[in-house]
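Notes to self, Dicarboxylate/amino acid:cation symporter:
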Amino acid sequence: MKKLALHWQILIGMTAGIIFGFIMVQPSWGPEFVADWINPFGTIFVNLLKLIAVPLILASLIKGISDLKDIAKFRNMGLRTIIIYIATTIIAITLGLGLVNLLNPGSGISQDTIENLSSTYEGNSNIAGKLATAAAQKDAGPLQALVDMVPDNAVAAMSNNSLMLQVIFFAIFLGISMLLIGEDRAKPLKDFFDSLNDVVLKMVDLIMLTAPFAVFALLANVVVSADDPEILLALLFYAGTVVLGLLCMIAVYCLIFWFYVGKSPLWFLNKIAPAQLLAFSTSSSAATLPVTMERVEEHMGVEKEVASFVLPVGATINMDGTSLYQAVAAVFVCQALGIDLTLGAQLTIILTALLASIGSAAVPGAGMVMLVIVLESIDFPAELLPVALALIFAVDRPLDMLRTTVNVTGDATVASVVAKSLGKFGEPDVKDWDDNLDEVTS
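result:
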């Protein structure tokens, strides 16, 4: 019997997790049971993906650059990648602003709802933490993002997944240096990273065997830990506006892929679906990165030297879904609180959201930190910032799951476009976890 495709296995796990979560919400002991006995398996799965993220970036990026043989090729690939990422982010922000101004979701939020949300989340530690993080980023100098890219200790950078840009910088620096010493002298080190890359990709295959069970655990925990349904209902119009924008952005990616790469959007979505579903479950581009790289390289045919550069960079600086969310959320809270936004203020939102997305960490919840920075750029009253975050906090987690899915889809799209433009888009070469099993069994 033919094995069920991975994305269908994950989808079944997600559906079962949501249903199980709703069942376990009913008994008083249900949420605690899920938190103690179900959620840890999802956490282990996410930790495993994060565990191999840095080794995968190091091995694949160094291998990709050392395979180029020509630094000029790397320069061309880098410029195209950055330009396309910036272009798609601007499209996402503009799309979000257009929808929120057209649908005006903030007009449906009553004063009673605002007061209820403010009192519910008054003193919330998560909101206080986001405000503190945003304040620290605002106080940094204009070139702090560049300073933060360069590690003073490569080993320390590799020990922290939030320092992904530093790992990418070190890998690029090492890869270019290997090119400059000549192929013969670089060969021993190149062979090491080639082998490491193969091993880490095999680890991805093994981890993905547990994906259906892991997303069951993750989604069950999301359901039992959800906020008051009445609060979620009050924010339904706002959430619907964000979801509509994210769906439109997926459509934009499909059109770009169709016109430029020349393959069916349905083919694209089918190949990238496991990465999208994991992005939805984990709310983390960084945690999903190993799976995204595996799907784009093996299942879509993007050559390693392109995927190994474009995707890690995208997981760090390409936040199209998050940027679209910033635009909708910023205008929504202004509408709800009766604050008028001029055209100049909305153009400022585009610029600030673009710059904030580049420095945003690829972890759950980073979008709210970006939102504070965006709101402060348009002179939003500081005393209303906690109220603004309280307005959207209840639905932030489900929207975070959706916008991370869009972020990952955007990364895969840009990798495909860059590969096609460089003649590096070939035929898929799918590998399974047991391809070499006969060599180690008697």
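- The radius of gyration is 22 Å.
- The chain has one domain: 6-422.
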